[in-house]
Each structure stands twice: as structure tokens, then as C-alpha cells.
Write a structure and sequence with these properties.
Blueprint lengths: L1 H39 L5 H25 L6 H27 L3 H26 L2 H28 L7 H43 L9 H18 L3 E8 L2 H8 L1 H15 L8 E6 L2 E7 L3 H16 L11 E7 L6 H17 L5 E3 L2 H10 L1
Parallel strand pairs: 4-5
Antiparallel strand pairs: 1-3, 1-4, 2-3
Length: about 375
């Protein structure tokens, strides 16, 4: 399972790197477009346009550098994300806050600039902060950036009012920032709620996994197998689907533990789990029943077909090669579902078959019909 999780993590990281590289290229194109608009805009002063031209050049260089870093697999993507967040915050406070407040001539120009892109870029940065950090730290960063940006705007609006500049649009600018702040607050609360829901869901899935998985082998445990057996009995009663139950036990496992230690015994159990699984179908249910005993549920399988399938498993177990460990064998008992069977009755017959396999020589498969013959032989 851990290997599967690691593979999923690596796949997700590659997807993130690809998306960010595409976003970086698109960002360079957007900067070039913004520079063209800045160049042909006659309403702005030369100083204003020069400052933005230098900013566009620097920002485009940053985007190109980030695209290059994303191709370097040894640079953690989390570090790149947080570096970009810092750059975006500086960009927003400097060139969407301080520079416009200094160079724009009136509140009406500030209103147009805010509606155009300033407020949206600010919100994107704040949401990104909540995404990259835990909710508490992200909310603190987002709120700080927003309040500083809003403070810059309020200072400039207050300065305009003091020097007598027409402040007819000041109220609208303030309203826009207040609505953006309310939206940001809602997004932070939503993120906190989502984070809590994710923690609960992850905790629930972890408890389910622990409850139904054998910690040593990673196979389904007895509880899980028992539930699947009850489900198969229900399907058989309703639709007449045949199935078989197999219990198998490792031969001389106690002796192996005594001679080689429990660590080697655990290695044997794990090797059996890894070896048997590829020889079973995807619909079969294979798990650890307890101790050195395993169980296999074979849906839609007759007794003869089950015997052939399990013989392949038996032969595969004999081929396991562990250092200083003798040949591994197992005794198999198989029972076929009969109308009226309960989980206890079919397990009892499979257990009897397995016991007969152990008492008549081990390393063999005994099916349900052989039990009576074996018992008669034993009483002679």
C-alpha cells in the first residue's frame, strides 16, 4: 500500500510540474500583452510606464526561471510554490498597491484599476496562501496581505481627500475592497471546513484500513474475509452462484519459528502473501485468517476448478526461496458451498479438510468430499 501511495504522490507531482510549466509560459505571454497595452497607453505618464516596463521584464524573467526550475526534479515543488507566492505578494503590494496609489491621478482612475485586475490578483494570492500552508498560517498570511493592500488604498484615498482631490469614487473603491474582504473571509472559512472534512475522511479511511487489513502481510484480515464470505453466501442463496472456500496452513511453521526466530517466520508469511496473490484471479479473495493460516474465497468456482487453481498456488509456495529456510509447503482444505450452508458450516468443512491434509502427509489439497473417506480410513 505504501508503494502505491508513493507512486500516486509522484504521479501527482509530475502533473503539478506540467501544469505550472504551462502556466509559466502563458504568464510570459500575458506579460508581453500587458506590456504592449502599457506601451500604447497615452493616458499614463512616462515614469509610470517605465516602472511597469521594468517590472514586466523582471516578472517575465522570473516566470522563465520558474519554468526552468520545474524541469529540475531535485528541486522540491513545494519550495517553488512558496517562492512564487512571495514573488506574487511583492508584485501585488508593489505594483498593484503602492505604485498605482502614487502615480494614479484620482480615485476614479484607482477604481478602474481595481476593477480591472488589482482586486482579483490580490484575491488569487490570498487563496494561494491558504492552499500552500495549513489553514491557520495560510489565513494569517492572506489576511495580512489583504489588510496591507487595503491600508495602502485607504491611505491614498485619505490623502486625496485632504488635498481636495475629487473623491467621488472613493466610496466605490472602499466598497469593492470590503466585498473582496468578505469573499476572502468566506473562502478561508470554506477552506477550514474542507480541511476538517478531509481530516475526518482520512481518519475514517485509515480506521477502515486498519480494521480490515492484516498489518504484517497487507492482506485482508479475518474480519474482512468473513464479511466477504457472508456476501457470497447471500449471492449464492439468491442467484444460485457456486463458490468454494479454502483454508490452508503452513506446514511445520512452529518448528520454523523455533529454529530460525519469529523474524524469519514473519518473512515467510509475507513471502507467501506475495507469492500466492499473482496465481489467483482478481475476483478471488485472499487473506490471512490468523497465525500461519490463510483463507481463499473463490467465487463462481466449482470444486474441481478450485482444486486445479489451488494446486498452482501450492506449487508456487514450494518454489519460494529464502536464505536458510527449508522448502515451504502448505496443507489445503477446500469446501464447496451447499444449499443451506452458513458461514460456520462451510468454514467447518474447509477446516476439516485442511486437518485431514495435515494428518495424511501435508503438502496436499483435500476437498470436501474426501473428508468422510479419510475419517473412515482413520478408524480402521
Amino acid at each position: 500500500m505504501m508503494q502505491h501511495i508513493e507512486q500516486e504522490r509522484l504521479r501527482f507531482e509530475q502533473q503539478r510540474r506540467l501544469i505550472y510549466r504551462i502556466a509559466g509560459v502563458l504568464g510570459v505571454l500575458a506579460i508581453l500583452y500587458a506590456q504592449c497595452i502599457n506601451f500604447i497607453d497615452p493616458s499614463s505618464s512616462y515614469a509610470y510606464r517605465a516602472i511597469y516596463a521594468l517590472n514586466h521584464i523582471a516578472f517575465a524573467g522570473v516566470c522563465i526561471a520558474v519554468v526552468w526550475m520545474l524541469r529540475r526534479q531535485h528541486i522540491p515543488i513545494d519550495r517553488i510554490e512558496r517562492l512564487m507566492l512571495v514573488i506574487f505578494i511583492v508584485q501585488s503590494l508593489g505594483f498593484n498597491g503602492i505604485v498605482p496609489a502614487i502615480f494614479l491621478p484620482s480615485p476614479s482612475a484607482m477604481l478602474i484599476d481595481a476593477i480591472g485586475d488589482d482586486i482579483w490578483f490580490l484575491l488569487i494570492i490570498c487563496v494561494l496562501a491558504v492552499h500552500l500552508y495549513d489553514v491557520r498560517r495560510g489565513a494569517l498570511i492572506a489576511a495580512s496581505v489583504f489588510l496591507v493592500s487595503f491600508g495602502i488604498v485607504m491611505i491614498q484615498l485619505a490623502r486625496w481627500r485632504l488635498i481636495g482631490v475629487d473623491a467621488a469614487n472613493s466610496q466605490q473603491v472602499i466598497s469593492i475592497y470590503l466585498m473582496a474582504g468578505a469573499l476572502l473571509g468566506f473562502l478561508i472559512v470554506l477552506s477550514a471546513y474542507r480541511a476538517q472534512a478531509e481530516r475526518l475522511r482520512t481518519g475514517y479511511e485509515l480506521m477502515i484500513h486498519m480494521a480490515y487489513t492484516d498489518t504484517l502481510t497487507g492482506l485482508p484480515n479475518r474480519r474482512r474475509l468473513y464479511e466477504e464470505l457472508c456476501r457470497l453466501i447471500g449471492m449464492a442463496d439468491r442467484y444460485g452462484q457456486e463458490f468454494c472456500v479454502c483454508l490452508f496452513d503452513i506446514d511445520h511453521f512452529k518448528q520454523l519459528n523455533d529454529q530460525h526466530g519469529h523474524l524469519v517466520g514473519d518473512q515467510v508469511l509475507c513471502a507467501i502473501a506475495q507469492t500466492a496473490l499473482p496465481h489467483l484471479r482478481a475476483v478471488d479473495h485472499f487473506g490471512r485468517w490468523g497465525g500461519e493460516e490463510f483463507a481463499i474465497l473463490l467465487p463462481q468456482t466449482s470444486l474441481s476448478d478450485a482444486q486445479m487453481a489451488l494446486d498452482r498456488v501450492r506449487m508456487a509456495l514450494q518454489a519460494i526461496n529464502l536464505a536458510d529456510v527449508p522448502t515451504i509447503t502448505a496443507s489445503f482444505g477446500v469446501a464447496e458451498y451447499l444449499p443451506g450452508d452458513t458461514s460456520e458450516s462451510i468454514l467447518h468443512r474447509a477446516d476439516q479438510s485442511m486437518y485431514l491434509a495435515k494428518t495424511t502427509g501435508r503438502n496436499r489439497i483435500v476437498v470436501d468430499g474426501d473428508v468422510e473417506a479419510g475419517l473412515r480410513y482413520a478408524h480402521r
